[in-house]
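thread: overnight batch results

M.L. [08:02]
morning all. the overnight job finished for the chain we discussed friday. pasting input first so we're all looking at the same thing
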Amino acid sequence: MAPRTTISIDRLSATVTGDDTLAAYLGCSTRTLWHVAMKRHEMYEKFILTAMPGAARRVFVPNGLLRALQAKLRAKILTPLSRKLGPHVTAHRAGKSTLDAAALHLRACAVCDATTLPNTNPVKHDCPRRGVKFRLELKDFFLSTRRSWVCQYFHEVVGLNECVSRLLGQLLTTGFRDSRREKRNGVPQGALTSGEICNLVADCRLDGPLIEGMPEWRYTRHEDSLYFSHDAALPSVEVKKAIQSAKGFIKAAGYRVSWKQLQVHHWSRPQRLLGININRKLNIPANEYRQLHHVLYHAKKRGFEAQLKFTKTATVAALHAWIDGKLNYFGRVAPEKAAKLQRLYEAAKLGPEANVHATAPEASPGAGYAVDQRGGELYVICT
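M.L. [08:03]
and the structure it wrote out:
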C-alpha cells in the first residue's frame, strides 16, 4: 500500500500499544474486547435486501454488545481519522452530503451565473461546464474491503503496532462466503463502523492513485460511486481511454467495477450526479419535480388518501413523511422550486373542501345551463 498522506494521531499512537491499553482507551475490559473479537461472527443478524431485480445486498446488523463497542470505535478512532480525508470523499462524513460532491463537479462560469437568474435568457458561449462526465460503480464495496487491508492501514498509515492493528482488523470485519462459496473476511455492510473504515482504506488504496494518475480529471467518491468530470467536451475515444485508465487503477487497488452501472454524460443530455442535475447549476431533476407536483396538485383536489396508490405508500402518515423528505431535499438543491411546492403542500393540507372555487350562482329558469358540485369539483352542464 502506498498512502497518499500519512495520518498520525499523537494521542492514539502514544496511548494504544497493546490489547490492554486499547481496551482502556475504548472504556471496556480486555476480556470483553477479546470476547467480541472471537465471537463477532455470531453477533450479527444477517439479511438479504433486494432493492431491484438482480441487485441483492447482504446486510449485517450487530447485536447490543457489538453495537456498543462499534460506537466507541467510531467515536474515538475512526471519526478523528475521517476528519483528515480530502474533500473528494463525501459519504459517511459529518457536514458532507451529495450537494458537496455535485458542487465539486460544477465549473465556475460567470456567463452562466448571470443568465440563470429569473427573467433572463441563456446566452450562447464557450462554457467550461460543457465538459464530459462519467461514473463508475464498485462491486461489493464493503465486503471487498478485506481484513488484511484494514490491518495494513492501521499499521502502515496510522502507525500502530501489529498486535493492535490485527485486533482492530478483527473487530471491524467479519467472515462470509463469496459467490464461489469460499470463506472470506471483509467489512460487513450495516455495521456502525463500515462506512468510515471503508472510506479510510479506499482513500489510501484507490483515491490517492486515481487523483495522482488522472490529474486532468476532477474526481469524487461517494461511498462506492466514483465520478469523473473534465473541462472539455472530449470525443468518445478519449472518454473510453479515461475509463480504461480508471479501470486499471481500480483493479490494481483490489476492487472490481460493476459495468452495468457505467454512465457517460455529455452536455447534450442531462448530467446527473447522485440525483442532482449539474448541467448549468445545481437543480432538481425534472421528472422528480413533476412527480411531486402531480401528487400535491391532486391531493389538493381530491385529498391525500387518493394519492396512496400512485405513490405506493401504505398510510397517509407515510405519504406525509415521503413528501416532507422530498421537500427538505429539494429545498437544499433548488430553494425557489421547493418554495412553490411547499405553498402547494400547505394548500393541500387544508383539504379539498377548502380549495373549492366560489360556487357559481344558481341558474335561473331558461338560462341554458345548470350547476352541479360533486367531490370538490364544479360542473357546469348545458341544458
